[in-house]
Design a protein that fits this description.
5 copies of one chain form a homopentamer. Chain A has helices at 9-14, 17-36, 47-95, 102-122, 137-144, 149-166, 172-197, 202-222, 228-252, 265-279. The first copy, chain A, is an all-alpha fold. Chains A, B, C, D, E: The chain crosses the membrane at residues 20-38, 44-62, 202-222, 228-245.
Amino acid sequence: MLIHSRIPLRYVFKKLKEDALVIILIGLAVHYISAYYINRIPQMPSNIPAFLGTAISVLLSFKMSQSYDRWWEARKVWGAIVNDSRSFVLQLQSFVKESTNPMVKTLAYRQMAWCYSLGQTLRGLDPLEGLEAFLPASELQHLATHKNKPLAIIQLNAQDIKNLIRREELDAYRHVQLDATLVRLVESMGKAERINGTVFPVTYRVFLHFAIYLFVITLSFSLSEIPLIFELPLLVVLSSVFFLLEKTAYHLQDPFRNRPSDTSVTAIARTIEINLRQLLNETDLPQPVQPNGFYIL
Amino acid sequence: MLIHSRIPLRYVFKKLKEDALVIILIGLAVHYISAYYINRIPQMPSNIPAFLGTAISVLLSFKMSQSYDRWWEARKVWGAIVNDSRSFVLQLQSFVKESTNPMVKTLAYRQMAWCYSLGQTLRGLDPLEGLEAFLPASELQHLATHKNKPLAIIQLNAQDIKNLIRREELDAYRHVQLDATLVRLVESMGKAERINGTVFPVTYRVFLHFAIYLFVITLSFSLSEIPLIFELPLLVVLSSVFFLLEKTAYHLQDPFRNRPSDTSVTAIARTIEINLRQLLNETDLPQPVQPNGFYIL
Amino acid sequence: MLIHSRIPLRYVFKKLKEDALVIILIGLAVHYISAYYINRIPQMPSNIPAFLGTAISVLLSFKMSQSYDRWWEARKVWGAIVNDSRSFVLQLQSFVKESTNPMVKTLAYRQMAWCYSLGQTLRGLDPLEGLEAFLPASELQHLATHKNKPLAIIQLNAQDIKNLIRREELDAYRHVQLDATLVRLVESMGKAERINGTVFPVTYRVFLHFAIYLFVITLSFSLSEIPLIFELPLLVVLSSVFFLLEKTAYHLQDPFRNRPSDTSVTAIARTIEINLRQLLNETDLPQPVQPNGFYIL
Amino acid sequence: MLIHSRIPLRYVFKKLKEDALVIILIGLAVHYISAYYINRIPQMPSNIPAFLGTAISVLLSFKMSQSYDRWWEARKVWGAIVNDSRSFVLQLQSFVKESTNPMVKTLAYRQMAWCYSLGQTLRGLDPLEGLEAFLPASELQHLATHKNKPLAIIQLNAQDIKNLIRREELDAYRHVQLDATLVRLVESMGKAERINGTVFPVTYRVFLHFAIYLFVITLSFSLSEIPLIFELPLLVVLSSVFFLLEKTAYHLQDPFRNRPSDTSVTAIARTIEINLRQLLNETDLPQPVQPNGFYIL
Amino acid sequence: MLIHSRIPLRYVFKKLKEDALVIILIGLAVHYISAYYINRIPQMPSNIPAFLGTAISVLLSFKMSQSYDRWWEARKVWGAIVNDSRSFVLQLQSFVKESTNPMVKTLAYRQMAWCYSLGQTLRGLDPLEGLEAFLPASELQHLATHKNKPLAIIQLNAQDIKNLIRREELDAYRHVQLDATLVRLVESMGKAERINGTVFPVTYRVFLHFAIYLFVITLSFSLSEIPLIFELPLLVVLSSVFFLLEKTAYHLQDPFRNRPSDTSVTAIARTIEINLRQLLNETDLPQPVQPNGFYIL
């Protein structure tokens, strides 16, 4: 997640480099073509690029909204994970006959492990990294054989909740209520996987870039009487507004890619860890994740 | 679902062929009409096509949003199917007295069959194809008499859950919780059928095409002083931005048509199969569905 | 619901007749006023109609979205009715001790009657027509005294479910789960009534027509130098884009009016009947409702 | 709620009076300033008011959408109240051991009183007016001491439901299901209060008016060569499109203000009363609320 | 929350000061550059700033919608807190065997404390300030050790509900229903924290400001023939429409910052306190929070 501190210009311009170069080449090409065939190429009416600018704005507006919605939904999903993780521990303490039952702590630790593991799975990192702080080695070995580690962690929790019932530490009625919390966690996991695995319709991006280049070409033809030294910066600056917005939308739409604009899943998992440890009355708490310059992951 | 790999130009242009031809014919017709009646046809004010361009952008923006919403809702529905399939098996293992009860596996296999069958039903393919891997021949025969196969599969599962109760393997309380999962699966099925069976208001598409052709005609009249060799490509390229966006929206709005832009229901059903088999501790897992060039189904 | 088959031009133009006539009259009036007072009326700047066109597009975009939402919500409500009707019968078969209990069939038939009756009530038709296939004469007489027939049908079902409990065919726990399904059906009924009974803010439509006529007047003044034979068709064609879109939105916003663009509630009720009869193992099934030319009701 | 019958012009123009006067004064002022300083004031480029018109359209579109959403949400809340009132009585009849228990009628009458009282509270009217038809004098006295009457009515119902349990007319399980209905009613009440009590960000309205006046000023400068007799009506008519839309949105956003555009809460409460009385088998039913000319409250 | 009373101009202009100064400097710079290099700088075509104006409007429209959604969601979350606080006390009175049980009052007071504490936590104020009116000193000491005070208050309530069960004042069935209310409160808390802690994508704001300045620069070049005394006010007034809208959106998107445009969490918490005290039959009620001039917090 980008934070409010000053964003380095380098971060912004890195996104723009290639496109700016193409724009300059287009501007130069159009200029020399116009100069060479000056009598044979008619004047481009200025309302052509203007109309294209409107069409591009509409397209961008559509894409910005949908990309933002994906990003915001991803954040909502992780907000729901925070809420359900807290509720899960509150429910365990409230539902299990003896609050001091060590199983409460075991289940809570597995929940912390689940949060970290889900975040790393989504980002394509090692889903078991760092889990040795929460899980015994035997469970880590068991998880290693599973393709979907977070799902396997939830299965372990479901099995241990069943064990609580066998030992009559939990009744059927509250079992079902705990199960409802697990169902919500499975849902959040699936929603995050859906956002991560569903490619935003790629043709929109292709047509958008096509339209922006068309805009640049028609604009440079219609500005062909203006000296190159004024025309080129104008072309680059005007088209860069479009390119920058498109890039921002493009990054928002996939919020689990290890990029500065990602949903800060590690920081959220850490917050959950701190909250759950305090609910368990632990006093040795980890530090919140600190921002990495202008962003936090 | 289109994936990030390079989309073949052929795929894009195939969509455009017919419309481009019509545009060229319109351009030629307008050109020769203008040339012939040159003194009798007044100059088309250039703000007429410009205003039409704006109106078309607004229409397109509306259609793109609603089509995207249908496509995204279809994906959400299948995401919910993933979640509820996983929860269903976790609940069975947790709720049935003996986890080793063979009925758990029977119910889980029927759930996998349901996912494949629903996907094929939505796409208009044979809804029973490949189900022999999950269901005994007798059940397949029973299903053959049903008009709505996925609904009949859920009914079989509901009956077997009732049998679990008769044998006192499940209590009333957990029965209701399992039933809530079945209700959600029936809902997801119905939602997918709704998206599949509801025709997007067709008049919008008709009026949109009408407006685009009107745009081309007025634009070609207003450009009639420009040589044909510049005018025709400009007409085609400008109108193709509109046509391509409309086609993309048109394909998105019906995501179960066996097209490259479909929701990838087979791949999702396979993911569910792999997940459920692992939850059942099976080790002989099928491979995930591989992309078919630039898309995955 | 309009279907994909070719929509007759007659259907489209019938919507347009009156407005086209008014447009032509305005065009003629403006033309002769301009011709008569030619020296006294200044030239209308062409950006006045252009700016009005933009404002109208924005208005239309707003109205199209909200009308579409009403139409889509109506379809979603009927989708929920499909889902809950199916779930209702699955639950009855699963919850009632003896699946062969004749009350299951009675309740399922009343549910089919409810679907037909609700559809006809919404469309302002006779809500009891055709219900003799599902309900005994005594119940039809009882319903005749009720103002809200579908609500009375649900009350009958609720009473019979209570009778099941008296005869200990159903326990309290599953009673509540069945009740939850009835609550959802009551909700769907109320939502459809809300869409049907809530008038879309009428002033928007008035102001929209006002703006379109203003657009035509200013446009015809600004085109007053163009010969009438070119100006009139242009005026009609341009304004008809707006009128057609407005009419489409206007029809979508009230989807229970016995119009071709209606939500196809009869066809949906028939689908429910077929599904429920098959769940009851009946083999004598009715045919699905067939399209009526270019639409299905 | 405005209904489909012809809206009196008086109702529309009353909204416009003041703004039209200001527009005329601005037009006159600009005209005489331009005439006096004719050589010193440069021509206003016509794209300045055009660009402002676009910006205003965008602003208006935003405001119309959000205002409509508030209005539609208010209607949805009252739709939910209809549904939950019906479900509440159906549940009471189904859950209470003896359907003839007089407490069912008492609770249903209190629910009717709650609907009327909530509607009047939202509109700032006397929340107890007319409740003597549903509640005994002693309860009305008790309510008089409460600041939030509808909340106090729900508390009375919750207490009487508890009394049903004490007399073993209701079991714990169904108690919880009835409580869920009360929770939903408390939610609907709170949602209506939220819409009623949350001021739409006022600065948007201020800036919108500011932009419309700026539009009028720049437009009248750019039209300064046109005779006053044509310019003034044009200014008034063009700006009135904006003002009328803004006023409509402004009225929609606060749907409980005793205005013709209000949500028709009295009519809805009457519908609920009729429905509930019929569910109680009463035959002496009140008449539905009749429209008051062009609207219904 | 800003209220309807007249907003001081000072509040509006304070937002504008810096940007207006920059605009004036840009205007002056462009003017003198144009005057100096008059023959070498070509005329800026007026459709460049016009096209930028459209692009900015689209951007603003996107940002205004998303910011409004955050603000409205924040208000909805606090509305849900109102509803669940009321339901919580109604449920306690209804579920606990003896309504006179002093634990009901203890739990209700902790709920009031939770509301105040959550509001203050969100605004970055002392989360324990004023809680001595609701909580004993020992609990305040316990809370002081917790990082997330509201979460710790809910844990205290969950523990006391468990104590009610130990003393058989509450049964398992109603326990679960009360737990569902706690789960919703945990959700509301998490949602408010999410809105508060998620930075709106900062790059949009940067690019928006970039585009507005670009608009001003190109506009001032295209107006360079107009005398400075007319050009500068026009530049400031036109760009201020954009800046004011952006500032309003910027403030709405973070509704817990102790600003006049904040969600009025203190006033809402007071309303809850008054409601809950009346439900407990207390007569010594606090006053509602009064507006602070043109806003209420």
